[in-house]
Amino acid sequence: MADAALRLTALAEELLGEKLPVRIRAWDGSESGPPGAPVLVIRNRRALRRLLWKPGELGLARAWVAGELDIEGDLYEALDLMASLIWERGPDTGDRVHPVRDPKVRAFAKGLLQLAGPLPPPPPPPEEVRRRTGTLHTKRRDKQAISHHYDVGNDFYELVLGPSMVYSCAYWENGGTLEDAQRDKLDLVCRKLALKEGDRLLDVGCGWGSMAIHAAREYGARVTGVTLSVEQAAFARKRIAQEGLTDRIEIRVQDYRDVRDGPYDAISSIGMAEHVGSVRFREYADDLYALLKPGGRLLNHQIARRPEKDESAYHVDEFIDAYVFPDGELAPVGRTVATLEEAGFEARDVEALREHYALTLRRWVANLEEHWDRAVRMTSPGRARVWRLYMAASALSFEHNKIGVNQILAVRPAEGGAAGLPLRARDWTASATG
């Protein structure tokens, strides 16, 4: 009798204490759950063994990446429904999954074991980052982490990001296309930095060179871009040559901690600080402060998380750490501003772009889905599945205010404390007051 889905539904509802909002289809063809709801497809019993050996998010992630779990129907709706049951277990929602000592948990595990069979766990999918060694956020380990995320093929990123090749939040000021919004974001950064002909700009974490090209072509800046990704640097240099801007832009494969050729008139750090880590963030702030001339501006564009009541309880998301951004960390925006000011900066403006990132991510997911077969050929089925899940789940997190993203404009004050900004903080096109 094909009844795996019914048994799984009964086990899950007993554990969670409420009805499942999604439908389950099991490997034996059986189905259970509300008609018309998104379907959680369990293609193979290996998915259950992964959960038994690695309960929680990492077990689910491994099954998803391996193709043993899938979603039929609206992916965003399914993730929303399941997040309320599985992942959102903070103090405001209640801990619905009981401690291991609870008889319900033991009964759930026993039921899964009966369905899964007493076999050893499958190995992790090859897309999972290998075991890391060495101290967190050393230069060597950071380079390995960046390579895992970015050196997966520039062609793949072109499919997802589109012609702009900007891997950070776009700025949806006037609607339009993704490329329009990314151009507007880059221009907003340049205007906040008050770039002008001949200014020296350091672009930390320069990606595929989009910010450097825009600043040099549209504002006449002389740009140094640094990245730890060899593939990004090669792609950026090719684009720069095609634009005829090699005399204005230098791209280096270099850790920001090794940049010693300041002072710079301005520094942009767009979507890079998430890689720095809490143990190194003050060092990051100190280094950028030292590289700026007095009166120079820093634009720090960074994803932020909500503060924890007990900050020591913060932990990195298991799926993100294992498959997307190894060793990446998020900090509350207040902590980021405070650290920049502790290093000597004056924070002059904070602009929240949370909703903008949700819109951006949905466009990236749509790009990936539209070119799915090509994306799989360029990387692997598992890698494409990682990016689809990561970007869709992140879009929901921004929409629900679980995380945000902010542009922080900070200044290294000149002698006597002058900041050189317009009197109206948001009037970025006005001339400096001195």
TrEMBL record:
Organism annotation = Streptomyces sanglieri
Family of this protein: Belongs to the CFA/CMAS family.
Q: Which Gene3D superfamilies match?
A: Vaccinia Virus protein VP39
Organism placement in taxonomy: Bacteria, Bacillati, Actinomycetota, Actinomycetes, Kitasatosporales
Write down what this protein is called.
Answer: Class I SAM-dependent methyltransferase
- S-adenosyl-L-methionine found in the keyword field: yes
Q: Where is the Polyketide synthase-like methyltransferase domain?
A: 156-396
Q: Which UniProt keywords apply?
A: Lipid metabolism, Methyltransferase, S-adenosyl-L-methionine, Transferase
Segments carrying the region annotation (Disordered) are: 115-140
One Pfam family it belongs to: CMAS
Which GO MF terms are attached to this record? methyltransferase activity
Alphabetical list of SUPFAM superfamilies matching this protein: S-adenosyl-L-methionine-dependent methyltransferases
Write down the superkingdom of origin.
Bacteria
Q: Name one GO biological process term.
A: methylation
Query: Which Enzyme Commission number(s) are on file for it?
Result: 2.1.1.-
Q: Which InterPro entries match?
A: CFA/CMAS, CMAS, MeTfrase_dom, SAM-dependent_MTases_sf
